[in-house]
Each structure stands twice: as structure tokens, then as C-alpha cells.
């Protein structure tokens, strides 16, 4: 009569772990898998962004970093476009927002613009996501609310404030993106400031060599056109915009 084999494991102490045979690599313990959440997906995508730039952020790459397949990400984000919008909104949460002071609204608006620039440029080319995007995320809406509140506190009419918040956004996005493009030109490990001194020096030589009879104004402004002061150019553009916005102020539009 045959005896059925037991289904359970053999009783007794567990077998001792054997050493790695010659010619084989020792196995590494797999890290414990974390539960997949939308926050985990966003944070992982931001790490890829900060290390390699926006183009590297794909559903496949993020899934690979999380140790899963791309299909599992679709339970948390609808696709790459939504993921990038969620990343931008998470980045916007780092922006420090002012409380409106009507007497200082112009300087506060400039300060907020500098803060947005600081945060955006600390995350490589994340500003690419902002171009052409209507903000719907809570943190992006917080930023828009703060900008509008400052302008309205200063007496900027609603219609002008509504257009100005868009114009400011385009200026800040373009500045951040251009900065990313420029800094990508600097070789790895080289001081970017020293690189740009040399980079703009080459254009200074080129513009200086242009025929003055054809380009009299341009050749007469070589120093001004090739100044590598990026912060100075930003401040000039920002001051130009805020002065323009302030020119529309009407006392009767000031919220009471």
C-alpha cells in the first residue's frame, strides 16, 4: 500500500546557508519593496528629474526605479503628462509665499518672482512643464493666488492682474528654461561661471569683428550685449514688468 507524501516542509532545524561556490557572485539581499503610492511615484520622478533632466522622466524609467512595471503606475497617474504636472505642483510647494502688504506690493511681487525662479532652477528644466500649462494643482494655485492677491492689494485692476499673472509666468518660465540650456553647455566638473565668462567672451570677439558700417549700433554696444550678468538681466526684465503693471493702478480698484 502506497503512503502519501506529506505536503508540508520537513520538520527540524532549517538547513544552514551554504557559502557561495567558486566562480559565482554572492547574491545581494533584495531591498524590501515599498508600497506603491502616487507620492512614491512623484518623488521618484523628481529624483530622476534632478539627476538627469525632464527628458529622462518616462513612465518606464520611473517604474524601473521603483522596481515594478510601467503598467502598475497607471493606477496612480494617467500617464506621463499628468505625472509631469504633479511633479511641477510638488515643486511649487517649495515656493515661500508672502502675506500681502499694500504699501510694498511691488517689492513683494518681485520677491515672489525671485523665489519662483530659485525653486524652478533648483530642479533643472522643470519649467518646461509650466510652459502652456493652465495651473490646476493646489500648490500652483496657491502661487497664482499669492501673485493676484499682491497685485489686487496694490490697486491693479482685475483685468490687468489677470493678464499680468500670465505674462509674469511666461517670463519666469523662459528665464528658468534658458538658464538650464546655458548651464547644460558647461562641461561636467567645470565651474559654470568661469565657463560663461569664456563663452560670452567668444561672442564679444565675434561682434567686435562685425563690419561697423553695416551694424553701427550693434558694434557700438558690444560690452553691453555680451555682459554675462544673468541675474542683472533677470532683475531688469522683472523691474520692467512690475513697473508696467504698476502703471495701470487705479485707486478705485483697490480692494476695500
Notes on the protein architecture:
- This protein has two domains: 38-91, Orthogonal Bundle (Arc Repressor Mutant, subunit A); 93-253, Tetracycline Repressor, domain 2 (Orthogonal Bundle), CATH 1.10.357.10.
- It is mainly α and 256 residues long.
- The longest helix is centred in the last third of the chain and has 28 residues, at 158-185.
- Helix 1 crosses helix 2, helix 4 crosses helix 7 (138-153) and helix 5 (105-121) packs antiparallel against helix 7.
- It has helices at 38-52, 59-66, 70-73, 80-92, 105-121, 127-130, 138-153, 158-185, 192-208, 216-219, 222-225, 230-246.
- The mean pLDDT is 88.
- The chain is flat, with a radius of gyration of 28 Å.
Domains counted in the coordinates: how many? Answer: 2
- What string, H for helix and E for strand, traces the elements in order? HHHHHHHHHHHH
**Apparent shape:** flat
CATH architecture of the largest domain, by name, is: Orthogonal Bundle
**In what range is the share of β-strand residues?**
under 5%
**What's the average pLDDT?**
88
Could you state the CATH homologous superfamily of the largest domain? Tetracycline Repressor, domain 2
CATH class identity of the largest domain = Mainly Alpha
Extended strand count? 0
Radius of gyration: 28 Å
What is the CA–CA distance across the termini? 98 Å
Q: Structural class per helix/strand content? A: mainly alpha
Low-confidence stretches: none
By DSSP (H or I, 4+ residues per run), the number of helices equals 12
CATH topology of the largest domain: Tetracycline Repressor, domain 2
Amino acid at each position: 500500500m502506497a503512503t502519501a507524501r506529506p505536503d508540508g516542509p520537513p520538520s527540524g532545524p532549517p538547513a544552514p546557508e551554504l557559502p557561495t561556490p567558486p566562480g559565482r557572485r554572492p547574491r545581494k539581499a533584495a531591498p524590501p519593496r515599498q508600497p506603491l503610492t502616487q507620492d512614491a511615484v512623484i518623488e521618484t520622478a523628481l529624483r530622476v528629474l534632478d539627476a538627469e533632466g525632464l527628458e529622462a522622466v518616462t513612465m518606464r524609467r520611473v517604474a524601473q526605479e521603483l522596481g515594478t512595471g510601467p503598467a502598475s503606475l497607471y493606477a496612480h497617474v494617467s500617464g506621463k503628462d499628468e505625472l509631469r504636472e504633479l511633479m511641477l505642483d510638488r515643486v511649487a510647494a517649495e515656493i515661500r509665499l508672502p502675506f500681502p502688504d499694500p504699501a510694498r506690493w511691488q517689492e513683494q511681487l518681485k520677491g515672489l518672482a525671485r523665489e519662483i525662479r530659485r525653486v524652478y532652477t533648483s530642479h533643472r528644466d522643470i519649467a518646461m512643464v509650466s510652459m502652456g500649462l493652465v495651473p490646476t494643482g493646489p500648490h500652483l494655485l496657491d502661487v497664482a493666488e499669492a501673485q493676484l492677491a499682491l497685485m489686487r492689494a496694490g490697486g491693479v485692476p482685475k483685468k490687468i492682474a489677470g493678464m499680468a499673472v500670465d505674462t509674469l509666468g511666461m517670463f519666469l518660465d523662459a528665464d528658468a528654461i534658458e538658464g538650464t540650456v546655458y548651464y547644460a553647455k558647461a562641461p561636467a566638473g567645470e565651474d559654470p561661471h568661469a565657463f560663461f565668462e569664456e563663452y560670452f567672451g567668444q561672442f564679444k570677439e565675434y561682434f567686435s569683428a562685425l563690419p561697423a558700417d553695416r551694424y553701427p549700433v550693434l558694434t557700438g554696444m558690444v560690452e553691453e550685449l555680451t555682459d554675462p550678468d544673468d541675474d542683472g538681466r533677470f532683475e531688469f526684465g522683472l523691474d520692467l514688468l512690475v513697473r508696467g503693471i504698476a502703471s495701470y493702478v487705479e485707486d478705485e480698484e483697490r480692494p476695500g
